[in-house]
Structure prediction request, 418 residues.
Amino acid sequence: MSFDFSHELLELARQAEAQAALRFAAIDEVAFANTRKVLSAFTNHRVSDTYFAGTTGYGYDDQGRDKLEEIYAEVFGAEAALVRTGFVNGSHALACGMFACVSTGETMLSVTGNVYDTLQTVTGQHGKLGGTFADYGIGFETVDMKDGLPDLEAIRVRAAQPHIKAVYIQRSRGYAIRHTLSIDEIAEVCKVVREVNPEAVIMVDNCYGEFCDTREPTQVGADLIAGSLIKNPGGGLAPTGGYIAGRKDLVERAAFRLTLPGIGGECGSTNGLNRSLYQGFFMAPHITAQALKTAAFCSALMGILGYDVSPVGDRAGLDIIHTVNFGAPEKLLAFCRGIQAGSPVDSYVTPEAWAMPGYDDPVVMAAGAFIQGSSIELSCDGPMRPPYAAFIQGGLTYESGKLGILTAVQELLRLERK
Ligand SMILES: *Cc1c(COP(=O)(O)O)cnc(C)c1O
Prediction:
């Protein structure tokens, strides 16, 4: 494939870029401020290449690992952090964080509706698995969102109840029909919770949100955040893992859950991966900006073509995900196939809609990534049901993201003109 596009499509792309110019400038400013934070933390901690060697076996005294955790903590304005490739994914880090916040007889209240799909098994909503909240006698309740945003009045009432010991907030929309919360909106929820229940621990699922703002939830009232290293903070270089950051006692409890009480974060060999984690975190503000620009370009272009896109206006860019409604299954499929064809890896593969565990309808997924399942790399997926929306995210470089989107749009235009 030579990635030659028609003059007409290239002209539309120019219009889309002109439309997105102000967004691009705002994204660059956030990336600059965040790069400054990250670079400061690196210099403050006197990072040296001896940290990259790492350990094997038990992983005692892994200076590189321990320093990186201090650097994460500084950048996220937290007391402590746990940054580990021993977390198999973001959900694992989140689950360890959740168990750190509540004990038997206590209840966690999720105030952004239900938790992300993969965490519903943790709370014990699906069947009789062992090791769940339900299994340990931990309660879990939810407050639904109102018009896609936190229902502050309901939260004020529900969070005040004495059995509520922890409040859970999901920052990103994930793959749900709701809004992604801005940092100011997270601050507002924290304020309401503190007013009615000062003792409650506040935890935030920070996935997809890191470095989209100059502040993180830990800087506006959250006690604990967690996320995935194969999304924003891994900068496309971390090969696997997750992180937790926040109050020291809670991070320690989460570490006891990850390994074992008494050992916590003191063990965990890094097996030569420290360099990727350091370099990835160093790159992360910039890489997140590349994904945000790819999304801004795609939204503008699809808007010009008459498609319904979300988010728009002030809500754009609060995380790296956006959606396009295609209105017809063959259009969704064509777009996803174009994304796949424009990927650096597995470009020759043809995505098909397929039954997925946890979904009622078949789902089509496109991803040609260097790291399996990495969604900081350009990827998209869409459930085969009205409005035939694709959830699109990532783009390691704006240039490659743009080429991927143009390839997808070319497939779509070809179909429309048949
Ligand atoms: C990606 C994501 C997770 C965790 O997903 P993993 O696939 O386990 O890394 C949790 N919550 C949200 C909102 C997410 O986007």
Residues 89-91, 94, 116, 118, 170, 172, 174, 205, 207-208, 228 surround pyridoxal-5'-phosphate (CB under 6 Å). The chain has two domains: 7-34+285-417, 51-281. The CA atoms of residues 209 and 319 lie 5 Å apart.
